[in-house]
Write a structure and sequence with these properties.
With 317 residues, the protein is α+β, with helices and mostly antiparallel strands. 16% of the residues lie in helices and 37% in strands.
């Protein structure tokens, strides 16, 4: 009887241990890329003070808080990540009518592991300003000015300052902005498939170009990446420009992106069959002209590289 009980207890113990090991090992085999779905809200701070009508060019923002979807799980986008954008349009307030306005376009996300991902996002909130279709609208006080103009003691003062402009639109670096992703962004996870992650972004490393002619002036690619213009639909592909000229990439005769000299860019291409062409802008004695450059697959067969500009054109430079 004792032998039977010992056998049963041993069998039960072995069965429970097998189930426990199976349940623990099962989820570890599942790997997938990290996804920031469309509609994700990201709160950011500008790295510099923004003034409508004065600030222009590229802008840099810092995420104010971790972006996470589940408790007790690592953040999908950690606090301190950078959002790259630019001031698309801005203007000061008018003298007699019209408020100050500013439009900010967000281009990409730069994560702490130095990976850059193109995004399609829009501004939906500012601390003390109204947002209309992604445009920040400055403040105004027409009622107060009208009452001050009609009130006799303040009428002379209002007439003197009538040519003055309206209130400025200023966003300080401690004022929070809220942006919303319009399309999903797939980030490279530590256990994700490198082929899937490579479609969206890759760390930029020097790339050796095979079979380059002697007139190529770039010994290696720059470690910085310039962003091409992202599209809502399509697949992201890598383009490496190993020449000393700006190159415009055409897909079926339509320009899809510009690659600066000696850099690697990510360009969104439409899905389906297409024909690519690379046109370089080359200076000459009379000005400049456009010349078709040699385009080929890169070493990993995951994108294309602009190999060289014809020797007869480079010799005229």
């Amino acid at each position: 009887m004792k032998t039977t009980k010992g056998t049963i207890l041993a069998a039960v113990f072995l069965g429970l241990s097998c189930l426990t090991s199976t349940s623990l090992a099962g989820p570890g085999d599942i790997t997938c890329s990290i996804n920031l779905p469309a509609g994700t809200i990201i709160r950011v701070y500008p790295d510099e003070q923004l003034v409508a009508g004065t600030t222009s060019g590229p802008l840099l923002f810092t995420t104010a808080a971790d972006v996470r979807f589940f408790l007790n799980r690592p953040p999908v986008l950690p606090r301190g990540s950078k959002i790259l954008g630019r001031m698309e349009a801005s203007g000061k307030a008018g003298r007699l009518w019209g408020r100050a306005k500013a439009q900010i376009v967000f281009n990409s996300i730069l994560t702490p592991d130095n990976c850059e991902y193109p995004i399609d996002a829009t501004l939906i909130g500012a601390k003390k300003y109204q947002i209309h279709e992604g445009v920040i609208i400055g403040r105004g006080h027409p009622r107060r000015d009208a009452l001050a103009l009609l009130f006799p003691p303040t009428t002379p003062y209002q007439l003197i300052r009538l040519p003055a402009r309206g209130p400025k639109l200023t966003i300080r670096d401690e004022e929070q902005l809220v942006i919303k992703l319009m399309t999903s962004v797939y980030l490279a996870g530590y256990q994700s498939d490198q082929n899937l992650a490579g479609e969206q972004a890759r760390k930029i490393t020097p790339v050796a170009i095979a079979a380059k002619p002697q007139n190529t002036e770039c010994s290696k690619l720059s470690s910085s990446r310039s962003m091409a213009f992202p599209a809502r639909m399509g697949s992201l592909r890598s383009f490496q420009n190993a020449t000393a000229y700006d190159v415009v990439v055409y897909s079926n005769g339509i320009p899809v992106g510009t690659i600066p000299p000696c850099t690697e860019s990510v360009i969104s291409l439409p899905r389906g069959d297409l024909k690519l062409k690379a046109i370089a802008t080359v200076p000459d004695e009379n000005g400049q002209r456009e010349v078709e450059a040699a385009l080929g697959l890169n070493d990993k067969q995951t994108g294309w590289q602009v190999l060289y500009v014809p020797a007869r054109v480079s010799a005229n430079r």
